[in-house]
Amino acid sequence: MSQLIELADFIGLWRLERRIHDHLGPTGHLTGTATFTPETKGLRLTEQGQLTLGESSFAAERHYLWHADHSAIEVSFDDGRFFHRFAPQGVPTATHWCDPDQYDVTYDFSRWPEWSSTWLVKGPRKDYEMHSNYMR
Q1: Host domain of residue 97
Q2: Are 33 and 15 a contacting pair, CB within 8 Å?
Q3: What's the pLDDT at 76?
Q4: HEC profile for the chain?
Q5: Is residue 1 assigned to a domain?
Q6: Given this model, what pLDDT does residue 71 score?
Q7: One digit per residue, pLDDT tens: the chain, 136 residues?
Q8: CATH number (domain holding residue 62)
Q9: Which of 59, 88, 92, 120, by CA, is between 20 and 30 Å from 108?
């Protein structure tokens, strides 16, 4: 990728398609939107959609805060707790330890403005891969 991606490039509405392959439970799929809205210290990411897990389907919503941190992007939970940090160049990766579970993410911006994230989650009661595609 030759383009340098900055935090402001995410502003706006994205179509979101998410697949969840759970080795311990039902497979999941979410169809919805991801909206990046400017706030004082960065962007608020709101993900909304219809989540299907096995035979169950329900509305789902999650919020995160993204802000620029030098050449990286820092992601926090909605309540301000640190989640992870990544540089949007090359093949960005990050980790998050939430005792007793390990969360590892790889972002892919090689087809910008379409992009994706893949989370691998492992723990005593967790073992899943979650792949999300974001498209304008």
Answers
A1: 7-135
A2: yes
A3: 97
A4: CCCCCCHHHHCEEEEEEEEEEECCCCCEEEEEEEEEEEECCEEEEEEEEEEEECCEEEEEEEEEEEEEECCEEEEEECCCCEEEEECCCCCCEEEEEECCEEEEEEEECCCCCCEEEEEEEEECCEEEEEEEEEEC
A5: no
A6: 86
A7: 446 799 999 999 999 999 999 999 999 999 999 999 999 999 999 999 999 999 999 999 999 999 998 889 999 999 999 999 999 988 999 999 999 999 999 999 999 999 999 999 999 999 999 999 999 9
A8: 2.40.128.20
A9: 59
The number of folded domains in the chain is 1
Strand partners, 132: 18, 117
Phi/psi zone of residue 42: left (φ > 0), alpha (ψ -120 to 50 degrees), beta?
Answer: left
Q: Is residue 98 part of a domain?
A: yes
